Amino acid sequence: MLASEYDVIALSETWLASDIFDSELFNDRYVVYRRDRDSSFFHTKKYGGGVLLAVSKCLNSCRLTYYESKCEDVWISVDIRVNNKLEKLSICCVYIPSPVQKHVLEHFLDSANQAMETSKLTLILGDFNLGNIEWTGSPGLPLLATLPQNSLYATMLTDFITLNNLDQYNHVKNHNSKILDLVLTNIPVSCLRACDSPLSKVDAHHPPLEFQLSSCTSTLTLSSREEPRYKFYKGDYCKIIEELKVISWHDVFKQCSDVDSMVQLLYDKINNIIRKHIPKSKNSTRKYPCWYSRDLISLLREKNKYQRTCKLIHSDYKKYISSIESLNADKCNFVHFSRKKSPYFKSYVINNHAINEVDVIKDLGVHIDNKLRFHTHVDLLAKRSYKLLGFVLRNCREFRSASSKIAVFNTLVRSGLEYCSVVWNPHYEVHKKRLEAVQKRFLWHLSYQCNLVKRLPTYNSRLKYFKMTSLESRRNMMDYLFLFKLVNNSLDCPDLLKQINLNGKQSAKRIHKDKHC
């Protein structure tokens, strides 16, 4: 430990207790932040678990207790320099005991979501014990998660990662070829590898890691406006000469003690005269960047001219495309729709080339599987929606009006969740809940920003307060609207209309005969 030069040391499953002092673990070079098992709300065992973060005293750090959940996690803030600017980095070390329980993982992710509301730079590391997720990719780059079917915990974690725009960088597998320890961050990570000189005895299930956080480089935006320049050819040189003649340089330089101050004074006088008698050019907006040469601009203009001509001559263009375009069998696939356990498969051939069979096919943005369950479409739709929701929450953080945020959410997120819903409207509760969770998360954010979390504790109360409708109700309404248009001939689709059988039950009319006494 004395030979280590790490800035931050993170340990999970420390097995520490209150009778063990920090000075027994680290020397005075580190500030130790730890959370032992006895502070966890969900675990009754006295021993085991625990997390620890040790930060070098060269870094300014503090503990963020208001971020910490009832699980085994510890949050700290460290001052780092990014692009020559001081920023706050939130670091969390967490331990999710095995076997993973839904309420434990859900509570930690909800607490971390609240922390991400105010944290710009975040690093979450620790033992999540979710070995059923397959992480694929190249070392040094963010890894992609391949989820097993019907894995609720893996889905919860990946949705959290997507929502908060985090990346997972750990590619080091344990002796079972699984990855249990995750490195989640929105900062690029470099040089992640297995630790060559571990600080303690190595656990075969959890190989020690070491990595560096790459400093974020700022993106320099090009200014579309030029700096004004002096028009020397329009200068009033007669007045300039007159002013220069009036100046008594001997008297001016008397007050200067050295040559440098004389030179500076000379430049000040000349610059003042230039500003008075030399006009400046007006700011002009360039259509092309300044490094575009004349030849390149000429080629771009010629390309645009041909594009306009091409749009005017559609028939010749289409005839040309049809003459050179041929069906590429390598890019063709077919899907066989059946719910039988042993369906009959038939092969298809184009130009003596067999077409590949696939389980899922994409048509007009909808992923259709061979059993028409649409689970693949719902999974991809939820991931994309969480990613867009995270984008909305990050970029609309300064919005004060809830109606403005709702308008952005409806435009970017909800529109995608309702696209072609008549085709894929889910019937499984697990799919309905996963899609509804996107809007639930957004409404929680709104109530949190408006200080209404305690006043609006349920999803239905938030829907009513913000005058919104659940996604399931909106999908059902779209189904009813589609049926209404189909029956009333607003949609011309005879094949679908044939499938609809309308039976009107006639009520028996009672005939009252006049009775005469």
From TrEMBL:
Record Pfam families: Exo_endo_phos
Listed InterPro entries: Endo/exonu/phosph_ase_sf (IPR036691), Endo/exonuclease/phosphatase (IPR005135)
Ranges in coiled-coil conformation: none
Ranges of residues in domain Endonuclease/exonuclease/phosphatase: 5-186
Superkingdom of origin organism: Eukaryota
Protein name as annotated: Endonuclease/exonuclease/phosphatase domain-containing protein
Organism: Loxostege sticticalis
